[in-house]
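Our consortium's second objective concerns turning raw sequence data into structural hypotheses that experimental partners can test. To show how far this objective has progressed, the report includes one record in full. It was chosen at random from the queue rather than selected for favorable results. The single chain below, 194 residues long, was entered without modification.
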Amino acid sequence: MELCLSGQPRAFETLYRRHAPFAINLAVRIQGSSRDVEDLVHDAFVRIHDRLPELRDKGAFRSWLGSIVVRLLRTRLRRERLARMLGLSQSKDGEVDLHNVASMEASPELRAQLAQVYALLGVMPADLRITWVLRNIENHRLEAVAELSQCSLATAKRRLNKAQSFLERHFIDPQLQGTSEEGEQRASTRKAGT
């Protein structure tokens, strides 16, 4: 870190190589695909390069990088959602890239469930999506979720509860689906309960 601050280009390259995989993985998991993730991480490191002297606690670099990646992703997700709502986006931006998100050992059933979860995440507001992914997919402690999202702990809890509630209302577990009549009965019961 000190070598980066002294302006040695190789030092910043080493810093990038050491921490870029973390940033790329974080961005892929939140976004649900690897589309343009390298560009986003590059932008995050450009911001870091310009603001590195502002970092007081050198041990907090990774969380600082994560919060910059989250902020850039939030902006991207909000823009994409607005474009879809206005009918300005014809691309398949919201599709999940299971190859990059799911484990190679994941069963087809688990992959289908993961695709459904990401489809539901795609219609959530960006802040709810980010909070839920950081907590439930990245397995960050709630305090770390709040720090990465740059919000209070209470706000992180509120966002997590809203996201979880939304997923519980809309997720359809194929293992719980019986015959089509039973599925229709569950759906009508669910509608009556809301």
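The partners drew two points from this record. The chain has ten helices and no strands. The chain has one domain: 2-193. Both points have been shared with the crystallography group to help prioritize constructs.
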